[in-house]
């Protein structure tokens, strides 16, 4: 590891990995992987738009990344009214940790990856000074000309960009647990007005089942437990002993100002920039698409303006989902949709 690079990329999720694959080899790149081998809490479903993107890039998801069972439909459940419907969906069920590791391995020889967290960022005259912390607590400083934040929700680079200003992007706390599968396989999207203004999910992976959801930060754990109890007491799901529990922040963009692409020589990609669906929380396709757009923008004179043009349609796509939101999250409208059976399986 050198002490100076052209670009430092903070994070090693899908946005970072696709950026590192497509960034020109004229640049020396240091990538900081602060996950320390831990899996990001995730439903691990690849939406059709992610699959199409990978296909267009000629990237074939290896067999060992995919898991059974296949997703053929998602059940929408309203715990308040007890109404349920199955909606046909075609997602790829995958192992998120293996997916991230596969993507990490796609970068060029100009990218050096180190297992370290960025803990401090300082702007010097013509460079950034980034303090890194390794898992054993060891620290060191590295400098770069360009800084890329692909470090997801709660991004340290985003916080640096908003320094002195208020970052108003709405966020939830997401909690997820894994258990042994005791009942039939299920893929469900769960709504419960009493415990969450957002949604929760039940997903089957091989012989395990994950239950997770997004909650208001205050009282998140209590509301997660209440929902879990409703699932077992009212719906009869047997979740049993917790094999693993994880939590993280998740963004919900609501307006154009929630997107933050960068400033001068500092840029954001993926969820750190605000790219995630505010309705389904599908974020992998946006992460990969913005990572590629930013890498390509580095070939132009004005990186920020070129990047902005390339991702404008993605911002529009996310903002359009605001119109769909009431039909999912307003209990009255949601139940009218459930009763009508529009687009549902018979
Ligand atoms: C519970 C849950 C379920 C989800 N389910 C799905 C789903 O099924 N399908 C889907 O498409 N999307 C899903 N999403 C959304 C999706 O996970 C994210 O939108 C997507 O991972 C964003 O990719 P990213 O590369 O921008 O950031 P991330 O994938 O979050 O990657 C950021 C990386 O940066 C690292 N990092 C953070 N801070 C630092 C630092 N200071 N220094 C170094 N490294 C750092 C993190 O460890 C992480 O590895 C889900 C999200 C949650 C929370």
The tally of strands reads 17
CATH topology tier name of the largest domain: FAD/NAD(P)-binding domain
Please identify the top-level CATH class of the largest domain. Alpha Beta
Query: Largest sheet, if any?
Result: 8 strands, mixed
Q: What small molecules does the structure contain?
A: flavin-adenine dinucleotide
Order of helices and strands: EHEEHEEEHEEEEHEEEEHEEEHHHH
Report Rg.
21 Å
Class by alpha and beta content: alpha/beta
Structure annotation, total helices: 9
Explain what this protein looks like in three dimensions.
With 346 residues, the protein is of the alpha/beta class. It has two domains: 4-43 and 96-168 and 254-323, FAD/NAD(P)-binding domain (3-Layer(bba) Sandwich); 63-95 and 169-252 and 326-340, D-Amino Acid Oxidase, Chain A, domain 2, CATH 3.30.9. 27% of the residues lie in helices and 29% in strands. It contains nine helices and 17 strands. Strands 1, 2, 7, 8, 9, 10, 16 and 17 form an eight-stranded mixed β-sheet that branches. Strands 5-4-12-13-14-11-15 form a seven-stranded mixed β-sheet, sandwiched between helices. A hairpin with a 5-residue loop joins β4 and β5 (84-88). α1 runs parallel beside α6 (284-297), α2 (48-56) packs parallel to α6 and α6 packs antiparallel against α7 (303-320). The radius of gyration is 21 Å and the shape is globular. The N and C termini lie far apart (59 Å). 40% of the residues are buried. Residues 10-16, 32, 34-35, 40-45, 47, 117-118, 150-152, 156, 174, 176, 212, 248, 250, 270-272, 276, 281-284, 287 line the site of flavin-adenine dinucleotide (FAD). Flavin-adenine dinucleotide (FAD) is lined by residues 10-16, 32, 34-35, 40-45, 47, 117-118, 150-152, 156, 174, 176, 212, 248, 250, 270-272, 276, 281-284, 287.
